[in-house]
Amino acid sequence: MSAFAPEWGVLQEMIEDRTDAVENGVRFVTGTIDGTPVVLLLSGVGMVNAAMSAQMVLDRYTVDTIVFSGIAGGVDPSLTLGEVVVPDRWASYFNVLIARKTTDGYSIPSFMHAEYPNYGMLYPQPELVRSDGHEEPEHRFWFEVDEGLLTRATRASVKVALESCTGAGVCLSEAPRVVVGGNGVSGSAFVDNAEFRKYVFDTFDASVVDMESAAVAQVAATNGVKFIAFRSLSDLAGGSEAENEMETFMAIAAENSAGMVRAFLAEGAEAGQP
């Protein structure tokens, strides 16, 4: 799965024995990538689009693992543009309570959560999650990535060659790396604010922020399907002094994320895994 057309396009270039099917405006592309059977689809941007598309593919195909490939905003100051981050857990950090203001600050209802520090009137809330065998939903903030998938990603990370320049001659100032582990957070908000970026990093110890991954992780958890996301940094979510870098570095980020997906699939094929 990918959200943006550039990400989707890179993956389509890899596929063999292609067959297309369109349902409810969503194109499903089936075939193989280096011998591994896959279904490719473009979810569109945002948490609702991502969740809807994830459930659609699970309802129509026999899926063992959902892999999300795309760009993201870097919030960890140690990371640079073009690097690929593979978090080991994801959270919907922008599921929030908007608190009332009082003379003493902000006040939240007694039945709401305050597990994490607020950003002004915004208090992050856990999701209500349903899963097989549990009719009553549970409150859950983090969604863990399968350990076996992370191990495979770690092996693949030392074999992949990441791009540093686009065909148009735009190059990164530092050679990009693959970083496996850490936290990712998602919400339907494009972040381009240095102060809020610092809050996200300090509060959730997050490496990256995007607009889809945690939604797909929740759908995968509810359906009992494994999930992993490869996110390459197209911008710093407001952390640089210049204008947001996404349009300049999206192509490199999309290539690097897709390249890591291919290396991940190849690593599974070598091990005889789907």
Automatic annotation (TrEMBL):
CDD domains: MTAN. GO terms for molecular function: catalytic activity. SUPFAM superfamilies: Purine and uridine phosphorylases. Residues 23-266 form the Nucleoside phosphorylase domain. GO terms for biological process: nucleoside metabolic process. This is Phosphorylase. The lineage of its organism: Bacteria, Pseudomonadati, Pseudomonadota, Alphaproteobacteria, Hyphomicrobiales.
